[in-house]
Design brief:
Blueprint (H helix, E strand, L loop, with lengths): L2 H32 L1 H4 L6 H14 L1 H22 L2 H7 L4 H44 L17 E9 L4 E9 L8 E13 L4 E14 L19 E14 L5 H5 L12 H37 L3 H12 L2 E3 L2 E3 L2 H66 L6 H26 L4 H5 L1 H18 L7 H15 L1
Antiparallel strand pairs: 1-2, 2-3, 3-4, 4-5, 6-7
Length: 485
C-alpha cells in the first residue's frame, strides 16, 4: 500500500468512528428523552436500565452509520481542499478519482459490514430490546400504572388507581379486579388509599390497602353470573368491609422471560433475511386464502339471493307475479305473505353479505399491510448498504467543492442531506405499507432520488468540470446583474 493510500485511509477512519459515535449518542439522547417518564424515578436497578439502553444503541446503527459515512467523507475531502492538498495532488499527476480509490474500497467494505450487521445483529438486538422493555413493564408494574387508566400488564388482574405518588408507594382510589378464576368480574377489591411495592426482585407484588370493600360472587359451574343472566339471583354474593388488607400477587408463575422469548420473534424487525422470506411466503398464502374465502362467501350469498330474485327469468317472473297479486287494502297495498317472507330473507342476506364484506375488507387490509411491512423490511436489508455507498459518493465530491474541513460547514451540509434522505425513506416506507406505492419503490425511494445526484456530483468533480464551481456561478451572476444595470 502506498503512503498516499495509508494517509487517505487513516484520515477517513478517524472522522468515521468519531461521527458514528456522535450520531449514536445523539440518537440515544433522543431515545432517553422519549422513555424518560417510564424509566427514571421508578426504582429500577441501574443494570436493567443500562441493558435496555445498550440493546437500543445497536438498533440505532441503520440511522447513524449512513450519517457517519456522509459526514466523514465530506470532512475528509473538505479538509484536503481547504489545505490545498487536492491542488498539490493534481499538480503531482494524481486526479481526484485516484485519491478517492482507497475510500471507495473502504466504503464498499463498510457497506458489506452494514449488510451483515443489519441482517444478523440488528434483528437480535431489536428482539432483546423489546423483550427487556416488556420484562421491565411486567416485573415493575409501577412503570406503567397511570392515573385513571386500567392496567392489564399483570395476567389475571386488572388494576386501576385514581392517583399515584412516590413511585407507587402512595395510591388513592384503588380498584383491583381478580380474574384468576376465569369467571369474569366475580372478585373486586376497592379501597380509598393504599400502597404498592415489590419483594424478592419483583417476584411478588404487594398491595397494602386501607378503608375499602371486597366484593365476591360465587359463580355457578356454567361460568355465568345469575345477576347478568337476566333472572333472579341464586348465586351467593358477599361484601367484606376492611380497614387494612394486604394482597400479594405471585408473579413468579408468570415467567416474564419465558413469556417474552417468543413475543417479538415474528416481528419483521426481529427477523434475518432468510426467515423473513419464509414469513413473507406464509403471509402471502394467508392473504390469498382470505381473499379466496371472501370470493366464495360472496358467490354463495349471491346464489341464495339469485334463488329469490336473481337473474333467472322464470324465478323473476314468479316473483313479479306474486307482487302483482297483492291486494289493495284500505290502508295501502299489501303483498302476499310468501312474497313478504322472500323480501325479508333477501334483505337479511344482503345485510349479512355487507357485514361479511366489511369484515373481510378489514381483515384483508390488515394482512396486506403486514405483508407490505415485511416486504419493505426485506428491501431495507439491502437499501442500507447501498445507501451508505451512495451517501459516500455525495459527501466526497461535496467536500472537494466546499473545501471546508472540521465540524462547521460539513456538519450543516451533512445534516441537511441526511434529513432529506431520512424523510424520503420514511415517506416511501409508509406509502409502501399503506399500498400507495409498490414495496420496491417505497423502500428504495430515497436511493432512487439520491443516486442521480451522487453520480452527477462524482462525474463533475472527477473531470474537473466548472459546472459546480462556486467561482464560476459567482462570475455568472455578477455578469447578469451587470448587464441589467
Amino acid at each position: 500500500m502506498k503512503k498516499i493510500d495509508r494517509f487517505i485511509i487513516k484520515s477517513y477512519i478517524g472522522p468515521l468512528v468519531l461521527t458514528f459515535l456522535i450520531a449514536t449518542f445523539i440518537l440515544l439522547l433522543q431515545f432517553i428523552w422519549r422513555y424518560m417518564d417510564e424509566l427514571v424515578g421508578k426504582g429500577l436497578p441501574l443494570a436493567d436500565v443500562a441493558e435496555f439502553l445498550w440493546y437500543a444503541c445497536w438498533t440505532f446503527v441503520p440511522l447513524s452509520l449512513p450519517l457517519a459515512v456522509l459526514l466523514s467523507s465530506l470532512m475528509l475531502f473538505g479538509s484536503l481542499g481547504e489545505h490545498y492538498e487536492l491542488v498539490a495532488a493534481k499538480a503531482a499527476g494524481l486526479p481526484l478519482r485516484r485519491l478517492m480509490a482507497p475510500t471507495v474500497v473502504m466504503s464498499l467494505l463498510i457497506s458489506g459490514i452494514a449488510f451483515y450487521f443489519t441482517d444478523h445483529a440488528v434483528p437480535q438486538a431489536y428482539k432483546l430490546h423489546r423483550q427487556k422493555y416488556h420484562e421491565i413493564q411486567t416485573r415493575r408494574p409501577a412503570v406503567n400504572l397511570q392515573e385513571g387508566v386500567y392496567y392489564y400488564g399483570i395476567p389475571d388482574y386488572v388494576i386501576r388507581v385514581g392517583k399515584k405518588r412516590d413511585e407507587g408507594r402512595y395510591l388513592e382510589d384503588v380498584q383491583i379486579y381478580d380474574h384468576s378464576q376465569h369467571k369474569g368480574n366475580c372478585a373486586v377489591t376497592m379501597s380509598k388509599k393504599g400502597g404498592m411495592y415489590t419483594l424478592e426482585d419483583g417476584r411478588y407484588l404487594v398491595f397494602n390497602l386501607f378503608d375499602g370493600y371486597t366484593y365476591g360472587e360465587d359463580i355457578a359451574n356454567n361460568g355465568q353470573s345469575s345477576l347478568t343472566a337476566g333472572h333472579k339471583a341464586q348465586d351467593p354474593f358477599t361484601r367484606i368491609k376492611f380497614d387494612t388488607q394486604t394482597l400479594i400477587m405471585d408473579l413468579s408463575k408468570y415467567d416474564s422471560k419465558q413469556s417474552t422469548d417468543n413475543l417479538y420473534v415474528k416481528h419483521q424487525k426481529s427477523l434475518a433475511l432468510k426467515p423473513l422470506g419464509k414469513e413473507i411466503d406464509t403471509l402471502r398464502m394467508n392473504l390469498e386464502e382470505r381473499v379466496g374465502r371472501l370470493v366464495t362467501n360472496i358467490n354463495s350469498r349471491n346464489y341464495f339471493l339469485s334463488s329469490l330474485i336473481g337473474n333467472d327469468s322464470a324465478v323473476r317472473a314468479s316473483f313479479n307475479e306474486r307482487v302483482m297479486n297483492g291486494v289493495k287494502a284500505d290502508d295501502g297495498y299489501v303483498l302476499p305473505e310468501a312474497t313478504l317472507r322472500d323480501v325479508r330473507e333477501a334483505a337479511a342476506l344482503s345485510g349479512a353479505l355487507v357485514d361479511d364484506m366489511e369484515y373481510y375488507q378489514r381483515d384483508v387490509s390488515y394482512l396486506s399491510e403486514r405483508l407490505n411491512a415485511y416486504r419493505v423490511e426485506e428491501h431495507k436489508k439491502f437499501s442500507l448498504s447501498v445507501g451508505c455507498l451512495i451517501l459516500f459518493f455525495i459527501g466526497a465530491p461535496l467536500g472537494a467543492l466546499i473545501r471546508k474541513g472540521g465540524m462547521g460547514m460539513p456538519v450543516v451540509v451533512s445534516v441537511l442531506l441526511f434529513v432529506s434522505y431520512y424523510v424520503l425513506s420514511v415517506i416511501g416506507e409508509k406509502a409502501a405499507i399503506e399500498g400507495s406505492l409498490t414495496c420496491t419503490l417505497g423502500a428504495w425511494l430515497a436511493t432512487f432520488v439520491f443516486l442521480p445526484f451522487g453520480l452527477l456530483l462524482t462525474l463533475q468533480v472527477t473531470i474537473d468540470s466548472s459546472f459546480l464551481d462556486a467561482d464560476t456561478w459567482r462570475v455568472y451572476w455578477k455578469k447578469i446583474f451587470k448587464d441589467k444595470r
